[in-house]
Design goal:
2 domains; 8-stranded parallel barrel; 14 helices; 8 strands; globular
Length: 339
């Protein structure tokens, strides 16, 4: 039997926060009023001076958690190895930065850190004693465009399996399960001047059960028939961005289920029928239910980056519609008998 729980990444409401339509407290209040149980946060984005917030900032965080009864589920952490113009960070500098993030997560009451894709595998072993001491699990994000076959991802997975610790795992971003190209992305690029023939070409790749990334890899770059269609900078931009959406079978997760700690349920566009345009969340959740997944799935809205000029930002509406979809599917699944 699965135990699938829901939360919302505050990243989903970043435009509301950035443009000061909502404060952090406004976001907590909004989610609490709509019965959201858990939250995911990028400390760099919403906690001033992270990973060294002031005691005043930490006290305010404590107050918000207590007032709105939110469960802090996961912190999204980045490792900027190119912090300096003239060199990459040394191994020790990388580890030291992540030790600070582990300590901050512990202070925030968070027991899981998402390491952004491409974090080098060499950080895992030296960080493990700190993860154990502070009871914070480290999980690499498997993101569309940077999925399981990418060498750096494979290096992390190899080291994760070697160490075989409950404090090391994976976060899966469901952008690897796009069954259609996000329509909002195509609409946005069309406004930039992308040729409809180029958009149709990419849509056809998905219709064949493939994805642009794999097609590009098979052809050593853009296929010749696509190259003939690329006549402008907007065409090239669209074709390049399209390889960030993958179309994998759910079975790609089979061998990794014991290591999966969390899911980003990517959201690009909720439709009027209550479904996500690009992904089949009934299918995703059915798979997780059958596998007995015990953990959170987090709404992560990224359609905000494709809002057309002059159109309203609909982060709040999209988040609530997505949460309703997930909850309804989970409720239906809980009534199923698992064999």
């Amino acid at each position: 039997m699965s135990n699938i729980k829901t939360c919302v990444s505050l990243y989903s409401l970043q435009d509301e926060y950035l443009n000061k339509r909502m404060s952090l407290e406004d976001i907590f209040k909004f989610l609490a009023e709509n019965e959201v149980e858990g939250i995911e946060i990028i400390p760099d984005q919403m906690l001033h001076n992270a990973p060294h917030p002031t005691e005043k900032t930490l006290a305010e965080w404590d107050r918000l958690l207590s007032t709105y009864k939110m469960k802090p589920v996961i912190a999204d952490v980045f490792l900027n190895t190119n912090l300096y113009k003239n060199r990459e960070l040394t191994k020790k500098e990388c580890v030291d930065l992540l030790i600070k993030e582990i300590k901050l997560a512990n202070r925030l009451g968070i027991k899981l850190i998402r390491l952004v894709s491409m974090v080098p595998a060499f950080v895992i072993e030296p960080l493990l004693p700190y993860a154990e001491k502070y009871n914070v699990t480290l999980a690499l994000e498997i993101h569309a465009g940077l999925s399981f076959d990418v060498p750096k991802t494979q290096e992390f997975i190899k080291e994760m399996k070697r160490l075989n610790s409950p404090y090391i795992g994976l976060v899966i971003d469901t952008g690897i399960f796009c069954r259609r190209l996000p329509r909002v992305m195509a609409d946005y690029c069309r406004q930039l001047g992308t040729n409809q023939e180029v958009i149709d070409y990419i849509n056809d790749i998905f219709a064949q059960g493939k994805d642009p990334r794999k097609v590009y890899l098979e052809n050593g770059g853009f296929p010749d028939d696509l190259k003939k269609l690329l006549k402008s900078e907007a065409d090239h931009f669209f074709a390049h961005m399209a390889d960030g959406y993958e179309n994998e079978p759910y079975s790609v997760l089979d061998e990794y289920m014991p290591y999966i700690k969390h899911f980003h349920f990517k959201l690009f566009e909720m439709t009027e029928t209550g479904e996500e345009y690009s992904m089949d969340y009934k299918g995703v959740l059915q798979y997780l239910h059958e596998k007995g997944y015990d953990g959170y799935v987090s709404t992560e809205y990224e359609g905000n980056r494709w809002v057309l000029p002059g159109h309203p930002m609909v982060e709040k509406e999209q988040v609530l519609a997505h949460q309703a979809l997930i909850r309804n599917v989970i409720k239906d699944l809980e009534g199923q008998e698992v064999y």
